[in-house]
């Protein structure tokens, strides 16, 4: 028998279970659900990498209010990096992506694409630096806005984008997550960026496992 004002262990258990199952979820709790799902897939003997890429793209777009998300990978045959999946893009932009391919130098060298390193995984490309070729202009949802002026430090313009590198063994580049635009017109905050890096790390683990299986 519990003493007056004493909480029984089964009451603690019930409260936590109810909160876990039915409690009001904020943006980061919902993101944890997505991460758990991805981690569960990692335990499977065979992985559907493209499906996991699409799940990550949709998760980022939905949970972090990113307008456009793409995920690409390195082709094991020719070594080119190509887009695989997208979330939030109009059909014309999706079609334009299909013909674009990159070399690894495009990701590690600032010659063709002037990137600004934010962390080990993330590079920022600002519209003022013209970080795209003429072929890539067709991938933007609102090309007319490419000439917009930045009015504040946290304002995100059409033409700004982030590349989050997907790394494998010995930090080999396996692919990337590309995000552009936010619903509120502001750059993602630092917590959101770390969440996206975590998702890139999970994809890196999945790709590394899948590559090992194919050898």
Can you tag this structure with a few keywords?
alpha+beta, seven-stranded antiparallel beta sheet, 7 strands, Beta-Lactamase, 215 residues, globular, 6 helices, 19% strand
Fold and architecture overview:
With 215 residues, the protein is of the alpha+beta class. The protein has a single domain (12-214), classed as GAF domain (Beta-Lactamase, 2-Layer Sandwich). The chain has 6 helices and 7 strands; from the N terminus they run H-H-H-E-E-H-E-H-E-E-E-E-H. Helix 2 runs antiparallel to helix 3, helix 2 (27-42) packs parallel to helix 6 and helix 3 packs antiparallel against helix 6 (190-214). It is globular, with a radius of gyration of 20 Å. The mean pLDDT is 85.
Summarize the structure.
Helix content is 38%, strand content 19%. By secondary structure, it is an alpha+beta fold.
Q: How many domains make up the coordinates? A: 1
Could you report the average pLDDT, rounded to the nearest whole number? 85
* CATH architecture field: 2-Layer Sandwich
Relative strand content = 15-25%
Number of discrete helical segments:
6
Assign a percent range to the helix content.
Answer: 25-40%
Radius of gyration: 20 Å
Q: What's the level 1 CATH class?
A: Alpha Beta
- Main sheet characteristics: 7 strands, antiparallel
Number of strands: 7
Q: According to CATH, what is the topology?
A: Beta-Lactamase
CATH superfamily: GAF domain
Biggest sheet strand order reads 3-2-1-7-6-5-4
What global shape is seen? globular
State the end-to-end CA separation. Answer: 62 Å
| Low-confidence spans | none
Structural class: alpha+beta
């Amino acid at each position: 028998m519990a003493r007056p004002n004493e909480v029984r262990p089964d009451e603690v258990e019930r409260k936590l279970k109810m909160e876990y199952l039915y409690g009001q979820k904020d943006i980061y709790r919902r993101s944890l659900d997505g991460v758990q799902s991805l981690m569960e897939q990692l335990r499977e003997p065979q992985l559907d990498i493209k499906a996991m890429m699409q799940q990550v793209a949709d998760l980022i777009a939905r949970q972090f209010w990113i307008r456009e998300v793409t995920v690409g990978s390195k082709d094991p045959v020719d070594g080119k990096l190509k887009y695989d999946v997208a979330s939030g893009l109009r059909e014309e932009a999706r079609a334009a992506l299909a013909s674009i391919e990159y070399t690894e130098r495009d990701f590690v060298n600032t010659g063709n694409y002037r990137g600004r390193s934010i962390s080990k995984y993330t590079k920022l490309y600002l519209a003022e630096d013209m970080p795209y070729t003429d072929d890539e202009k067709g991938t933007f949802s609102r090309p007319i806005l490419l000439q917009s002026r930045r009015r504040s430090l946290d304002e995100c313009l059409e033409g700004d984008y982030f590349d989050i590198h997907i790394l494998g063994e010995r930090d080999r580049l396996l692919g990337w997550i590309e995000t552009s635009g936010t619903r509120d017109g502001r750059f993602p905050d630092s917590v959101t960026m770390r969440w996206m890096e975590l998702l890139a790390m999970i994809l890196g683990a999945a790709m590394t496992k899948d590559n090992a299986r194919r050898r």
